[in-house]
Design a protein that fits this description.
about 475 residues, alpha/beta, Nucleotidyltransferase, domain 5, 2 domains, six-stranded mixed β-sheet, about 20% strand
């Protein structure tokens, strides 16, 4: 019998547990538990409810033990972390990356270390919520918190620690922090020393596919489950998603499309030069120490937040119904810059879009259909610009874009992307992140030979849909 993987995939608004196995050279998966992931605002600070997430992990383990499982894999969003004291207890709930505390912190850091120096070492796109800036904020404004910290663990490492008692840092999640030397894959100690960020709170970096450890006796006794290993899969969700790109070609372009759109390609070495800096590209880690050369683009968060606002106003529409309204609207009529800073914060998104358009003397979308078309087409336009940047940075031509993740269900976005990028868009699999989680775990358990074989299996296991340019 092929071994079963209990894969946990935590997104910014929800999480799920999938039970997966390899049968007849195809991956079969079943969702056994789904739950919301709701940040909590307390005294002006936005926190992750991490103990609630641990509770949901335990519920999934209870459900999965009836059929059994052989290993656990966990992936989450990037950059955020928990701080532990010397006894291994949380000092506070992890703070949400959308919290406002880092809004002006980057300029303070650049007064100490230049942007050029930071980028030339880390190769990471500058975003105010990168771990580097979060830790600098704590160092400056909450020094007592850092003084009491024994260990910092990123979110998936923290959840794995809760299950195993083992403190490790997996490579792909660490690579999102803007604290690694992109060429060595190790902590950039020189940069951290210049910012007085203590090195002793960091653990050694473990490769993707290594083992954290086994579930503790305490957890096994509490839940009545077997003592199985927790595997350090590509614990950054985009790292997992890219591992699952169903491409047999060594050179491919992908968009991991969900709350964020991560648009990039996979390289063997980082691309760090003035053009990459100007284009704001990032060099994050992938499986087998590959580099994900990509650009972070605001994704379906804008439509998700708009939907939440309409629901507050008593208008309850599914995403499919919103997309149907958008299709009634003419193309090339409305436009926003999806990466405008105000769009990454919670709030009345439709009103933010209208305000942006008014302030920039652009046509203002008013109806639900107009706002939705504005969002989808603006995203596709951003994809088109980014696609051209990638070809410039790599000197390679690509005949297709693999659009993976939940955005593969957004048929309008897929077609607009094909039209604007003028290449075939291969949409799917929608569950790329959890699939990547599973295949790395199966490689670790020697159920699959290597990543090349794994991608061939993904291609055969899941349906994809192709969108050809219509003009």
């Amino acid at each position: 019998m092929s071994k079963k993987i209990l894969a946990f995939d935590f997104g910014a608004s929800s999480g799920r547990a999938m039970l997966a196995t390899l049968i007849d050279n195809k991956i079969e998966m079943k969702e056994i538990h789904r739950f919301s992931n709701d940040p909590v605002l307390v005294n002006g600070v936005l926190y992750w409810d991490v103990l609630r997430l641990l509770f949901e992990i335990k519920q999934a383990i209870i459900k999965a033990k009836t059929t059994g499982f052989d290993a656990i894999g966990i992936d989450t969003w990037g950059v955020d972390f928990g701080l532990l004291d010397a006894e291994g207890n949380l000092l506070q709930n992890p703070v949400h990356y959308r919290d406002v505390r880092t809004e002006n912190i980057m300029d303070e850091v650049f007064n100490l270390v230049s942007k050029d120096e930071i980028y030339n070492k880390t190769g990471i796109q500058f975003m105010r919520f990168n771990t580097l800036f979060q830790l600098y904020y704590i160092k400056k404004h909450k020094p007592e918190l850092l003084k009491n910290t024994d260990t910092m663990l990123f979110m998936p490492d923290l959840l794995a620690y809760f299950l195993t008692g083992v403190k490790k840092t997996e490579y792909t999640i660490a690579s999102t922090s803007q604290m690694l030397d992109a060429n060595t894959g190790n902590w950039d100690t020189d940069l951290l020393n210049k910012l007085n960020i203590p090195l002793n709170i960091l653990t050694e970096i473990s490769p993707s596919g290594s083992i954290y450890g086994n579930i503790t006796d305490e957890i096994c006794n509490e839940l009545g489950c077997k003592k199985v290993p927790v595997i350090a899969v590509c614990t950054h969700d985009t790292g997992s998603a890219v591992a699952a790109v169903p491409s047999v070609n060594e050179d491919f372009v992908y968009v991991s499309c969900g709350t964020w759109s991560l648009f990039g390609t996979e390289n063997k070495k980082p691309v760090i030069n003035k053009k990459a800096f100007d284009f704001q590209f990032t060099n994050e880690g992938g499986y087998n120490k590959t580099i994900r050369l990509l650009k972070n683009i605001m994704g379906l968060w804008i439509i998700q937040e708009s939907k939440r606002q309409w629901e507050k106003e008593g208008i309850n529409l599914s995403f499919a119904e919103i997309m149907a309204e958008a299709k009634k609207v003419s193309k090339e009529k409305f436009y926003i810059d999806c990466d405008y800073s105000e769009f990454d914060k919670p709030g009345n998104m439709p009103e933010k879009i209208k305000t942006y358009c008014r302030n920039n003397n652009l046509p203002v979308p008013e109806t639900i259909g107009e706002i939705a078309m504005c969002i989808y087409e603006s995203l596709a336009i951003k994809y088109g610009k980014t696609f051209k940047m990638i070809t410039e940075l790599t000197g390679k031509n690509y005949s297709a874009i693999n659009l993976i993740g939940g955005g593969a269900n957004a048929t309008l976005l897929c077609q607009l992307a094909a039209d604007i990028c003028d290449v075939t868009v291969i949409a799917g699999p929608t569950e790329a992140t959890v699939i990547g989680n599973v295949i790395v775990a199966l490689i670790a358990l020697k159920e699959i030979k290597n990543i090349k074989k794994a991608r061939e299996i993904v291609e055969k296991s899941f349906d994809v849909k192709k969108y050809e340019p219509s003009k």
